[in-house]
Amino acid sequence: MAAALGVLRRTDEGQMLSGEVLLAAHVLLYEQVPFALGESSLRRLAEVLVGRGVVPKSSDYEGRWYLWWPKNGRGPCRDCGKSRALTRFSGRYGDDYRYLCARCRATERSVIAERAEQLRTIPGMAAAPSTPVARPGPAGTRSAGRSETDVPSSQEWNKYATRLHEMLAPLEWAGFDLPDDWDADFDRHHGALLFETLWRGDGGVDVSYHPHEDKVVLEPFEDVTGEWLYSYSLLEDSLEILVPGPGRQAAAAVEAAAGQAGLLDAAHVYVAESAPAEAKQDFALRRVRRIFQPAAEFRRLPLAEVLREVTEDQWLSSYLDWVVGMTGQDVAPDIVPDAAARGVAAWCWRNNTAVEDHHMETDVLMARVSIAVTRLTRPRICPVEGIDWDGIKDALMDPEWALPDATPIRSLFGEGWTEVAATVCTELDRWRRLDHERLGPQTTLILMTIGGSTGYTDSWWGQGRWHSICRHILDEAIAADLALPAPYDREGPDVFLADLQNPDRLPDTILDWFIDLPDAGIKGPRGLRMNSITRPLRHCWDPFWLPDTGA
What we know:
Helix content is 45%, strand content 11%. The chain contains 18 helices and 13 strands. It is globular, with a radius of gyration of 27 Å.
């Protein structure tokens, strides 16, 4: 450790040490120091080595080197030799990793595509339309070989693609575009493979389906070609999901994993601090265009004219300033129906109305009613047709609308219901007019998605991360030796977790326990109200390619 730190210190002081010296320090650190102690120094040495053009082979360091070598860096590109911004790159099918600039990554992708096209013409290698033919599988794998007769037919490829679409239905509902055609491959070791990048706005996720292994893999997106300048990955780590069951069971497995990873909620994106001011401004302007371009197309007006109208509308301008520009400033301008439902509940029921003026006796009761509003709203939101404002208003004003225990909701407000109903209808009517006359369904859905994804709704039921949030809170409570409320002190946390998927059907005492963990103490774990787990996952847009501009 001391030797490695000495090398790093000399490098930081500006001494031009050779790549051999740096690599020797790196090897010594790896071999002699436990990884947990030497990880940070390994990372720093790896960053310097990338700058000197030194890159391990795939098998070096027991194949684990990618855990600490940087994804991005700056140094000589392996192919063109020019010092540029680099990204770790592999041809995906067993090639050694190397660090290439954007131009060379694009060139290599083109070569791979040309080779795949040539393979299509080889007898016996023809695949289904729009699916690539087989290429060698990943190097270093060991599994039983498959015979040539295992090569899927066109019908089998179509069957795989259909099943994959069924499994990815939760992602499609959450705003991801599923491709009509999937890239595909086959090798004797692993069988069939379908893969593609799924997009929601500028956020990407790499998806692969291994039907012979009954698994779907979701991986961080990497712009290896350098052509998606505003893109960012919606994942930090890979997710391997086993899908051995029928379509609905497999879709539930994908939904659970995607929900825990935040993929079923609106994305929260920030610009890297290192980005130039011009890039930050450009990213913000792109967000504005993506919010209001659908409105311009709906109105058949220039975007500038729509923006002028928006700024002149005092009420809408205030909503944009506070909800879109401040509390939801990092929410991506995408359409996520479940988030939009929370947006309607938050800004047409809880805020800008008399609901808060007639706050109910307990927070538990208020939470039950908010869940009821969200439940009522969700089926009346369509990602294509938009929001059924009249249907929502009719349902909220229905005298039969009640909590799960059959308590009419209007009765909870007593004499205050008249004022509550009037102000809620005012907000719903206001948004219906904006939707139909000024914004159109898509821009309205985007604004409601943002409105349902602010810090105000972080702990609300109805988000994709709800299950993992509940699990985290229960795990913390158990780790702190807090007794679960009856009957879960006997039935256990798994039963409690399952029942929390419908929290409005739990008794008051149990829901109150979950919200605040009454026996936790000042320094103890936190319940739903104050737990940091409710904060959304955030993603970074880092225009690391900007230093190459004009090169």
